[in-house]
Amino acid sequence: MNDCLVDSYSNSIIFFDGDCNFCNKSVQFIIKRDYKGHFRFASLQSTIVENLLAHYQHTSRLDSIVLMENGQLFTESTAVLHICRKLDGLWKVLYIFILFPKPIRNAFYRWFAKNRYRFFGKQSSCIIPTPEIRKRFLNIDQQNGDKENE
Length: 150
Hints:
The protein is α+β, with helices and mostly antiparallel strands. The chain has seven helices and four strands, in the order αβαβαββαααα. Strands 2-1-3-4 form a four-stranded mixed sheet, covered by helices on one side. The longest helix is centred in the C-terminal third of the chain and has 19 residues, at 102-120. It is globular, with a radius of gyration of 15 Å.
C-alpha cells in the first residue's frame, strides 16, 4: 500500500459495519447532515479499509465505527462524538459528551454495539446510492486504480 493512497483522501473517512442496518442508516443520516461533504465512507468489510488500517499499523479487530481524521484513528464513542462535531445543525452540541470519562462513554457504546444486530438486524441487500453519494464511498476500484498506476 503506498502513501499516495492514504494521502489522496483529504476528507475524514468513516469506516462502518456494512452488514449492520443501524450502521447503514447512520451513514445515510450523516450524509444528509454533512452538507459540505466532509466525510467519505468505507465498509469495514472492504479490502481498502483493511489496507488503510494496515498502513496505520492498527492491529486490533474492529467491528464498529472508526473515524480516520488528520492521520489519527478514533473508535467507539470518541469517533461518534468527533463525527457529531462536524455535522451541520445542532448535532455539534453532542460533542460536549467528550468531557465524560472515556471508559464510561465506551461502556454505553459497547453495550449498544453488542446489541445492534438484535435491535436493528443485518442488511440483506445494499442501498443503491445516487451518483453524487456514490462518490463519497471508497471502494476497491479506487485502490486497484492506484496500484495499477504505480
